[in-house]
Design a protein that fits this description.
- By secondary structure, the chain is mainly alpha-helical.
- The protein is 60% helix and 4% strand.
- The chain has one domain.
- The chain has nine helices and two strands, in the order E-E-H-H-H-H-H-H-H-H-H.
- A two-stranded antiparallel ribbon has the order 1-2.
- A hairpin with a 2-residue loop joins strand 1 and strand 2.
């Protein structure tokens, strides 16, 4: 559908594909999220936990952080402008500036991903990070978005829900209906969809970590990594990020098993 934006950059390895973040599509369509984002202080790369991550991680994480910062600023400027607008014409001008800035940010973002993809293909990666995607066949943008939405909304891969629904599982049927509604809301410009239960900002960065680890980070190292590259401008607790990762990996591993059955 023409309303669907390019959502994925791929890194090919043999005949398989892994979908690399950053899924900019979500930032246009999942609620209006204003975040306080400041300049993040990065630790010196080289040695320690940095050696446990492939070099592509640091570029992807930096793009992710910059994207969040610029997107948050666009939203904040738009909100301020709309609050100050004293006429319909003024409101239209604010919205037009926002749309222009959004298009420019998307162009920048897609260019960065294309450059990274070109320089690092092929690359080793952990397939479990994006196991909810169907990787044995090419996906259209719409189908990729559908699979992404379903997993992050319900914590279950689309194919797993479809298999359950085929056996008469009404709860699985309800999950599929919800996903189709989200897809149509986006496709026909009927407004943003409701946010996911899990925090998209943290999950997206964590997904990049899982994808490009050479060696598993400890909870303390993962917290430091998120402190350096997460756009939420908060200090991350090692225990909290461990629990977040455990929940996420349980869902991803279940998705992997459903894809192999």
């Amino acid at each position: 559908m023409s309303a669907m934006r390019q959502a994925f950059s791929t890194i090919e390895k043999d005949t398989k594909q892994v979908f690399v973040s950053v899924l900019g599509f979500l930032f246009w369509n999942v609620g209006l999220r204003i975040a306080r984002v400041g300049r993040q202080r990065k630790t010196q790369k080289g040695g320690g936990w940095h050696e446990k991550l492939y070099p592509i991680f640091f570029e992807m994480a930096e793009v992710n952080s910059l994207f969040e910062e610029r997107w948050a600023q666009l939203q904040a400027d738009c909100k301020q402008g709309l609050n100050a607008a004293d006429s319909p014409e003024a409101r239209r001008e604010v919205i037009a500036r926002f749309e222009k800035g959004k298009d420019e940010l998307e162009t920048w973002f897609e260019g960065k991903l294309a450059d990274i993809n070109k320089r690092y293909t092929p690359i080793s990666y952990n397939p479990v990070a994006y196991s909810y995607f169907t990787r044995d066949q090419a996906l259209s943008d719409e189908e990729g978005i559908r699979q992404y939405l379903h997993f992050h909304r319900h914590g279950e891969s689309l194919r797993a829900s479809e298999a359950k629904e085929a056996e008469g599982d009404l709860a699985a049927f309800d999950r599929l209906v919800r996903t189709e509604r989200d897809v149509r809301v986006i496709a026909y410009g009927k407004g943003p969809i409701a946010p996911f239960q899990e925090d998209t900002v943290h999950r997206q960065l964590l997904q990049i970590v899982i994808c490009f680890e050479r060696e598993r980070l400890t909870s303390e190292e993962l917290a430091q990594c998120l402190d350096d590259y997460c756009a939420c401008e908060k200090t991350h607790s090692a225990d909290a990020v461990r629990k977040m990762r455990d929940r996420f990996e349980t869902e991803l591993e279940t998705a992997m098993r459903s894809g192999q059955s």
